[in-house]
C-alpha cells in the first residue's frame, strides 16, 4: 500500500493541475524539507516510547492519512469544475494544500514505521545472531524491490483502464485492509518476541560496543574487528526532574534536533553513514530526471520499463551478493567490495558523457537557461526552430517543465531527421543498471553497521538523522538539476554524480581502515591479531 501511494500521489497531482509538474515539485520539496528538519525529532519520539505503541501509532497514522487523502482526491476529481467556480478557485487551492499536507504526514509516519521496524524491531528479533540479522535485512530489501515493481504496475493498470478516481478508491481500500492485517501481524510478532517489550534505559548503555558482538558459527573467516568505544553524548545524560517552563517546551524540539546531530557525529559509524548519504547526490538512478533524459534520447516507454525491470533484478542480485560476501569476507569488507563494484560500473556512465550521441557541450553555460529567466526576464522558447531541431532532440524534459509546457521535446516524429547514436545512452544505462548490485549491497552493509553499533536507546534518533542526511543530499541533487537544467549540462551532472559517489566510498574506506587496519585487504584471516592504532589500547580487542 505504501509503495502504491508513493507512485500514485505524483501522478494524481499532475492530473489535478492540468498535466503540470508544479504540485509534484512542491510536494517533493515539502517531503524532503520535513524529513530533513524533523528526522531527529521523529527518531527521538521512537526512542522515548514503547516499541508497540510507536509501531501501532505510526502504522495507523500513515494508513489513515493515505485513506483520507484518497477520499479528498476522489471528491476533487468528481467536483473539480464546481470547486473552480467557488470563491474564485481558492477552495480548490485549499484542497491542494490539504492533500499535500496530509500526504506529507503520511510520509513522516512512514519514516517512523521504517525506523522502528527496520532499524529496531528486526535487531531485537534477530538477537545476537548477526547472520540471521543479515538474512532478514536482505529479505526485507528483496520484498521492497519486488513491491517497487508490482505496486506501480497494479496502480498504472487500474488508472489506465479505469480512471484516477477509481485509482484513488482502490488505494484507499487497499490501505484500509492492509492496515488491519499489518496491525495484527505486528501484534503477533510482539507477542512471540518477549524481548520487544523490554527497552533498555539510556543510563544503562554506556558500555563498549563492537562491530560483531558474537562470531557466527557459520563464518569461516574472522572479521578481525575491534571493540568500538561508544562516545558519550552530553545531550542524552539523564537530568533531574523539574518543572518544565513554557520556554523550555518550545525549545525542546530545537534541543532534540541539535542533540541528534551531535550524537550522529559522535557515532563510531559516522563516516559509513555519511558515505551512504553521499550516494543520494546523483542523477544516476531511475528517477524522473534520468528517465526524462532517456525519452529525449529516443528510448521508448516499453524499453524504459524493461530497463527498470532489469534494475530491480540487479538490485535483488545485490542483496544476494551481500549475504554471500558477508559470509566470506565479513561485514566491513563487504561494504568496501560493494563500493568498488558500484564505482567501477559507474565509470561506464562517465565514459558515456564523451561518446557519440551525448549532448554535452562545454561551450554552452550550464546556467544559461536559469540566467535567461532570472536576469533577462525573457522566457525561453518551448518549441525549437527548424535549424535547432537536431540539438533539441537531446534536450532533457526539464526546460519544458520550467517553461510551463508539458509537450515532450521529441513528441513530433519529424523532430529529428537524422537518427541519434545510442552508444552514449546505452553505456549510461548499462552502468546505472550494473551499479545496482554494488549499491544495494553497500546500502545493506551500512544499514547493518548502524543496527549493530548504535546503542538501543539511540537507534531511533540516529537513524532519524541518517534519513535527514539522505534527504539533504537528495534535495541538493534536485537543486543541482534546477540550476543547470539545459540538455548540454546533463553530462556535467553525470560527472558530478560519479564524483559524489566516489567521495562517499572514500569516506567508507576511511571508516574501514580505522576498524580493520592492516587486515582490511585480507579476506581470510583465521587468526587476526591487528589492533587499530586509532583506538585506545585498553579499549580494543580482536574478534
TrEMBL record:
Keywords: Cell membrane, Ion transport, Iron, Membrane, Metal-binding, Transmembrane, Transmembrane helix, Transport
GO cellular component, as recorded: basolateral plasma membrane
Topology class, membrane: Multi-pass membrane protein
InterPro entries: Ferroportin-1, MFS_trans_sf
Transmembrane annotation, as ranges: 20-46, 58-79, 85-109, 269-295, 301-324, 336-355, 420-439, 460-483, 489-509
Keyword rRNA-binding belongs to the record: no
Gene Ontology molecular function: any one: peptide hormone binding
Record-linked SUPFAM superfamilies: MFS general substrate transporter (SSF103473)
Entry-linked Pfam families: FPN1
Location relative to the cell: Basolateral cell membrane; Membrane
Protein family per UniProt: Belongs to the ferroportin (FP) (TC 2.A.100) family. SLC40A subfamily.
Function: May be involved in iron transport and iron homeostasis.
Protein name, UniProt field: Solute carrier family 40 member
Organism: Eudyptes sclateri (Erect-crested penguin)
Lineage start: Eukaryota, Metazoa, Chordata, Craniata, Vertebrata
Gene symbol of the encoding locus: Slc40a1
Amino acid at each position: 500500500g505504501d509503495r502504491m501511494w508513493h507512485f500514485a500521489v505524483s501522478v494524481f497531482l499532475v492530473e489535478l493541475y492540468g498535466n503540470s509538474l508544479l504540485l509534484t515539485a512542491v510536494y517533493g520539496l515539502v517531503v524532503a524539507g520535513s524529513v530533513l528538519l524533523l528526522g531527529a525529532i521523529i527518531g527521538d519520539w521512537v526512542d522515548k516510547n514503547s516499541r508497540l505503541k510507536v509501531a501501532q501509532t505510526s502504522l495507523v497514522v500513515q494508513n489513515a492519512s493515505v485513506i483520507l487523502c484518497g477520499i479528498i482526491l476522489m471528491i476533487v476529481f468528481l467536483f473539480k469544475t464546481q470547486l473552480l467556480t467557488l470563491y474564485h478557485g481558492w477552495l480548490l487551492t485549499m484542497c491542494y494544500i490539504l492533500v499535500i499536507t496530509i500526504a506529507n504526514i503520511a510520509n513522516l509516519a512512514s519514516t517512523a514505521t521504517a525506523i522502528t521496524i527496520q532499524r529496531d524491531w528486526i535487531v531485537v528479533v534477530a538477537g545476537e545472531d548477526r547472520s540471521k540479522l543479515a538474512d532478514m535485512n536482505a529479505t526485507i530489501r528483496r520484498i521492497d524491490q519486488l513491491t517497487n515493481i508490482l505496486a506501480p504496475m497494479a496502480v498504472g493498470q487500474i488508472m489506465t483502464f479505469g480512471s484516477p478516481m477509481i485509482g484513488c478508491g482502490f488505494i484507499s481500500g487497499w490501505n484500509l485492509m492492509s492496515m488491519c492485517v499489518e496491525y495484527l501481524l505486528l501484534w503477533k510478532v510482539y507477542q512471540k518476541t518477549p524481548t520487544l517489550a523490554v527497552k533498555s534505559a539510556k543510563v544503562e548503555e554506556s558500555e563498549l560496543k563492537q562491530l560483531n558482538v558474537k562470531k557466527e558459527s557459520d563464518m569461516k573467516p574472522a572479521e578481525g574487528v575491534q571493540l568500538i568505544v561508544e562516545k558519550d553524548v552530553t545531550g542524552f545524560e539523564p537530568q533531574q526532574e523539574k518543572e518544565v517552563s513554557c520556554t523550555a517546551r518550545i525549545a525542546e524540539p530545537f534541543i532534540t534536533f541539535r542533540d541528534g546531530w551531535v550524537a550522529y557525529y559522535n557515532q563510531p559509524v559516522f563516516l559509513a553513514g555519511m558515505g551512504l548519504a553521499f550516494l543520494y547526490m546523483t542523477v544516476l538512478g531511475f528517477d524522473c530526471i534520468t528517465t526524462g533524459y532517456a525519452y529525449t534520447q529516443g528510448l521508448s516507454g516499453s524499453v524504459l520499463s524493461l530497463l527498470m525491470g532489469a534494475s530491480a533484478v540487479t538490485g535483488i542480485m545485490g542483496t544476494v551478493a551481500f549475504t554471500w560476501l558477508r559470509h566470506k569476507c565479513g561485514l566491513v569488507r563487504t561494504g568496501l567490495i560493494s563500493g568498488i563494484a558500484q564505482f567501477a560500473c559507474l565509470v561506464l556512465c562517465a565514459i558515456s558523457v564523451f561518446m557519440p550521441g551525448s549532448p554535452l557541450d562545454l561551450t554552452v553555460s550550464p546556467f544559461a537557461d536559469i540566467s535567461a529567466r532570472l536576469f533577462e526576464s525573457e522566457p525561453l522558447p518551448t518549441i525549437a526552430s527548424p535549424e535547432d531541431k537536431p540539438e533539441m532532440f537531446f534536450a532533457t524534459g526539464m526546460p519544458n517543465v520550467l517553461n510551463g509546457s508539458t509537450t515532450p521535446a521529441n513528441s513530433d516524429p519529424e523532430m529529428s531527421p537524422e537518427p541519434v547514436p545510442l552508444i552514449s545512452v546505452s553505456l549510461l544505462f548499462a552502468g546505472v543498471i550494473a551499479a545496482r548490485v554494488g549499491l544495494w549491497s553497500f546500502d545493506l552493509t551500512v544499514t547493518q553497521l548502524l543496527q549493530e553499533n548504535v546503542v538501543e536507546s539511540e537507534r531511533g534518533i540516529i537513524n532519524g538523522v541518517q534519513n535527514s542526511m539522505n534527504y539533504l543530499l537528495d534535495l541538493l541533487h534536485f537543486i543541482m538539476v534546477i540550476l543547470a537544467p539545459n540538455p548540454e549540462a546533463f553530462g556535467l551532472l553525470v560527472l558530478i554524480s560519479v564524483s559524489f559517489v566516489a567521495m562517499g566510498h572514500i569516506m567508507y574506506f576511511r571508516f574501514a581502515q580505522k576498524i580493520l587496519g592492516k587486515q582490511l585487504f585480507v579476506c581470510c584471516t583465521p587468526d587476526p591479531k591487528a589492533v587499530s592504532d586509532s583506538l585506545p589500547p585498553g579499549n580494543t580487542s580482536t574478534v
